[in-house]
Specification:
Blueprint (H helix, E strand, L loop, with lengths): L4 H17 L4 H8 L5 H13 L7 H17 L4 H10 L9 H18 L6 H10 L4 H16 L1
Helix pairs in contact: 1-3, 6-8, 7-8
Length: 153
Amino acid sequence: MSLNPKRLAQIKTKILRILAGRNYSEQELHKKLKTQFTADEVLFGLSWAKNYQLIPNSIEEQQNLAQLFVASWQRKKFGINKINQKLKEKGLPTVSADPLVEITNALTLIQKRTQSSTKNLTKEQLARYLLSKGYSTQTVQKALRQWLTELKS
């Protein structure tokens, strides 16, 4: 089956417009394109994008893209579990946590949460909050212990 040259030009244009906003993984791009184009057209578009190095082509490039997302999400104080979940959704390799960064970010969130709250938050409420942000149980326990010792001193 031959592909329509006009449709191929449309998919190239669509890919360029999508990638003008931010970087996308192959899986994300595939998901966006499959709503408007046939499977053959999407495969053509993805291979065209790979040939022109518009999307990650190698494992190293995928890891670099993953690191860009990780840095962004760490600035938003997400925990490693949430970060890895989001990376899997994007079809990118997962990363390991830096325990010091995790605890520091968790402590920052605890301080912000307790300062902005008008009522006294319990240890359990703070723990649930951190778990919802994607922090591991061990990180939550260490951060809460450290926060409590800072309060006492």
